[in-house]
Amino acid sequence: MDTDNLRLFVMAAERLNISAAGRALGLAPAVASARLAKLEQELDVELLRRTTRKVSLSLEGSDFLPYAREILAQADAARAALGGTEAGPKGTLRFAAPSSFAQLHIMPLLPEFHELYPDLTLDLRLSDTRFDAIEGSFDLALRSGPLSDSSLKGRKLADDTRVLCALPAYLETHGTPATPADLAGHQLIAWSNLEPRELVNAAGEKALLDPARMACRTIVDDGDAQREATLAGAGLSMNSLWNVAHELAAGRLVRVLSEWKMNDRSVLWLVYPRTNVLTPKTRIFMDFLIARLSGHAGWSE
Fold it and tell me: 3-class DSSP state for residue 269?
């Protein structure tokens, strides 16, 4: 298969616009359509459904897309190994990350990254809901937690220490818990699954933070919303230090049970599918994020 035609298909699938994909590659719309038709003829399947109003991926096209990306990644990596690439990376990097982390810590870095790599486009998919890095066909993804998925490889970006916080005014009104047992009855801005979480202190003692023993009138699945609700005085909340470091430093929020933290050993990982070749563009973005964010003061204890 012609890799140029594969690249055209991938770009058309991402944009759902054949003419726009062709223009990005310097092709007239008629030429782009003819090349895609040739690829479909070679594969004996319809990859893209065309109507007068829109373009959409067929079922076969959806199945073929990750393989097309893999072939292009292999070809790019091979050229890089032979010194056959130009000065900087080109193309589009698909990156998925939790929205709350990206807004606070990745968005401010974009101008610097684009200045360093002007020919590389970042396609960012941001959500605090857990995603499938393989099904989503991402080149790279940021994930919090243990790296337990055997289909993924990754590099550590930073620790993800999680601690209890509250608005000082909330504690003045409702009292400050002195022990984990004192959490019973307090307002909790809870996570969506409402599962109990284990706490641990420096001495290795353990306790349980159980939403069922607290008053959970607010349940969220977004880190920014959880922080803002805490700042509004809606109750206690368990937050990643990277999400509340500025508020804690400024005194807008305070630690609750400061000698305790969540006992989940969470880590922020930059992950990519194990089957993927680590392309130059993926390695560059990984190295950039690690250089700017790894070892960030205030994110761990």
Answer: strand
Residue 157 CA to residue 270 CA, distance in Å, equals 6
Q: Tokens 């190295």 map to which residue?
A: 287
Contact 281, 139 (CB under 8 A): yes
pLDDT in tens, 254-298: 999 999 999 987 889 998 876 656 778 888 999 999 999 987 767
Which residues are CB-contacts of 299 (< 8 A; sequence separation ≥ 6)? 158, 159, 160, 161, 240, 241, 242, 245
Count of other CB atoms within 10 angstroms of residue 68: 22
DSSP one-letter code for 91: E
For β-strands 48-50 and 91-97, DSSP reports them as unpaired
CA 150/CA 143 separation, integer angstroms: 14
- Residue 24: which residues within 8 A CB-CB, separation 6 or more? 11
What one-character DSSP code corresponds to residue 286?
Answer: H
Classify 187 as helix, strand or coil.
strand
pLDDT at 134 over 50: no
299 and 111 in contact (C-beta within 8 Å)? no
Distances (CA, A) of 187 to 156, 206, 263: 34, 21, 21
Dihedral sign for Cα 115, 116, 121, 122, please.
negative
How are strands ordered across the β-sheet holding 206-209?
Answer: 206-209, 197-201, 260-262
Query: Which residues are 273's β-sheet partners?
Result: 152
Residue with tokens 């968005």: 107
pTM for this one? 0.71
Degrees to nearest 5, angle at CA 11 with 9 and 13? 65
Residues in Cβ contact with 129 at an 8 Å cutoff, skipping those fewer than 6 apart = 221
- HEC states along 24-66? HCCCCHHHHHHHHHHHHHHHCCCCEEECCCCEEECHHHHHHHH
- The angle formed by the CA atoms of residues 191, 216 and 212, to the nearest 5 degrees, is 85
